[in-house]
Amino acid sequence: MSLSTYTVTGMTCGHCVSSVKEEVGEVPGVTGVEVDLATGRVDVSGDTLDDAAIRAAIKEAGYQVTA
Predict the structure, then answer these.
(1) What per-residue confidence (pLDDT) applies to 52?
(2) Which of 32, 33, 36, 41 has its Cβ near the most Cβ atoms within 10 Å?
(3) pLDDT (tens digit, 9 = 90+) per residue, 6-52?
(4) Which long-range contacts (CB under 8 A, 24 or more apart) does 31-36 make?
């Protein structure tokens, strides 16, 4: 199992968190997504994680990855 951490900007509410979880959760290989609204930290776990696909999913949800 792999774990990747991203810092996401632009999230301001619970709906934002849900949007990121939903989009990232649909990426093949992702088995878990944890989002901390206060810090913008997004932890993604899975067997085989595609960094570009996860970043694209976050962008599709309407947010920016800063790290």
Answers:
(1) 97
(2) 33
(3) 999 999 999 999 999 999 999 999 999 999 999 999 999 999 999 99
(4) 31/1, 35/8, 35/11
Can you read off the two tokens belonging to residue 9? 């900007």
Quickly count: other Cβ atoms within 10 Å of residue 2's Cβ.
Answer: 12
What does the alpha-carbon distance between residue 57 and residue 63 come to, in Å, rounded to a whole number? 9
Task: Name the residue among 67, 59, 62, 64 with its Cα closest to residue 15.
Answer: 62
- Identify the residue whose tokens are 């990855």: 65
